[in-house]
Design a protein that fits this description.
The chain is about 30% helix and about 25% strand. By secondary structure, the protein is α+β, with helices and mostly antiparallel strands. The chain is elongated.
């Protein structure tokens, strides 16, 4: 594996939820649900990939770029069963650049993970708060 990532999720109080990746920490007093974090991960990944592609290829973005993601839950097993993504690009881009940016967004790592399932290595493992983590 070229890159390796670890994220830690902690419930620090009745309404506070913290996710830390080591370099980024997200704290929510609203208590984001894991499914909401999944959608946020997808939208931020697509946005980052599109903007990075534009910068690397000299495509000027003359306005705001945004990604809207919505999901619907499914059951048996309970999971996010449907995800809808809308990439909003600024006016003034050529059709060629619009299509290239759309293709770039489809190549973000989170999108690739959702469309090509990772290999599972069992379920969660128990560990002690002061002991080694169960990930790795």
């Amino acid at each position: 594996m070229a890159d390796s990532y670890t994220a830690t999720a902690i419930r620090t109080g009745t309404e506070q939820f913290t996710v830390s990746t080591g370099s980024t920490t997200v704290v929510s007093d609203a208590g984001l649900r894991p499914s909401e974090l999944l959608l946020a991960s997808l939208s931020s990944c697509i946005l980052w990939t599109v903007v990075d592609y534009a910068e690397r290829n000299g495509i000027g973005l003359p306005g705001e770029v945004s990604v809207r993601v919505a999901g619907a839950m499914a059951s048996r097993p309970r999971r996010v069963g449907e995800i809808r993504v809308e990439l909003v690009l600024p006016e003034g881009l050529s059709e060629k650049h619009r299509e290239a940016l759309l293709r770039a967004g489809q190549h973000c790592p989170v999108h690739a993970t959702l469309t090509h399932s990772p290999e599972p290595h069992g379920g969660p493992r128990l560990s002690r708060p002061d002991g080694p983590g169960g990930v790795g």
